[in-house]
Design goal:
six-stranded parallel sheet; 6 strands; homodimer; 10 helices; globular
Chain lengths: 219, 219
């Protein structure tokens, strides 16, 4: 039976647009003007790679003090916007359906555990479900390390492991790990962008995935 | 020689994400929870149709008092976010390049003229360029009326008229008017979504369009 690895930000919680705004504000405060849509297309990459991508868009190098300042500003802006974030519909019901069928699943997020705890509360993650975060696999997505670590924790083989994510970076990391990727449209990407990045199936959101679990071979 | 009709919001000014946030806040204040990405995919439709689309997402009818309240709340939230909006790079230079070549162009926006004036100032629209707004063509996009009115104002025939827009709704309205549509990625849609809606060419932003005017047959 399949085992599921869920991305958190933008996949289970509606937080992508707040990240776009938070990064936009942080960059602007450092004198860097990058269009919203360009930031949006990079969300889902993590940590160091995200800043590398922003530097590329800005057409200049970011030194360490600038990177630290950007990270701190993003954290501050995101904290301010966090109260507006909600879980997507039927996420707790999806978890319950998986548990009812004895299917294993984990959360894999590139955030720091302390930053992601409020989101885990929001999506009502059941007790005992593994959460793999930055400290477990520091290499940022689309590096496959985070998902590989999650599968190791679940004890699932590559042919039975399915990654559910909202960004092309999730799908690319899933491919590199030899896992199947299921894309959700919740991150604001178009369906063909997700299939182009290797998604096996694309669903609108967790609620639609829940009603189509049979497409992943689950009776 | 081609004549250009430019959409304003999201095409010349980086305002789509602020509209998403403003609608999200307005809807939530009325007890309606719709995911950000679903709102994003509707921006670029106008007025009555946008509210019709939101009602569909919310799974209920919106009566007239609710519609009026949503519109007023959106206007208030958007006004608060407007100071963060910038023009996309090289928009004044694009206008200058068109004028240098004696090419006709107009702005076609489904907003009220009083609401769009700050955006027109932001993109530094040259004096004398026609601006077609809601009062000239009340039917909302993807109805082609707004673009047809703009072409009439420019005196351009359908085979020489090019619509530049950032949303699939612009491309659909352009097709219905028998005009060529050029899509920009500035609204956050993927390239294949724009070509799928009929875009003749897709460019990243106004700056890239400016460097590829020859692809529209302009020497």
């Amino acid at each position: 039976m399949p085992a599921f690895i869920f991305d958190l930000d933008g996949t289970l919680a509606d937080s992508v647009y707040q990240h776009v705004i938070a990064w936009h504000s942080a960059l602007r405060e450092c004198g860097l003007e990058i269009a919203m849509w360009r930031l949006h297309r990079k969300i889902g990459m993590s940590g160091a790679l995200l800043l590398r991508a922003f530097a590329d868009e800005a057409g200049r190098e970011f030194d360490d003090p600038l990177k630290a300042r950007l990270e701190a500003l993003h954290t501050a802006h995101f904290a301010r916007l966090r109260r507006d974030i909600k879980a997507f519909p039927e996420v707790p019901e999806l978890f319950a359906d998986l548990q009812k069928r004895d299917l294993k699943f984990a959360i894999a997020t590139s955030g720091d555990l302390k930053d992601v705890q409020p989101l885990l509360d929001l999506v009502q993650l059941p007790h005992g479900i593994p959460v793999i975060s930055k400290k477990d696999a520091p290499n940022p997505k689309p590096d496959p390390a985070l998902f590989l670590k999650a599968a190791e924790k679940l004890g699932s083989r590559s042919e039975e492991t399915i990654v559910v994510g909202d960004s092309v970076w999730d799908m690319l990391a899933a491919r590199r790990a030899h896992f199947l990727g299921i894309g959700l449209l919740t991150g604001g990407y178009g369906e063909s962008e997700m299939t182009g990045a290797g998604a096996f199936r694309v669903f609108a959101d967790p609620a639609q995935l829940r009603r189509h679990l049979y497409e992943a071979g689950i009776p």
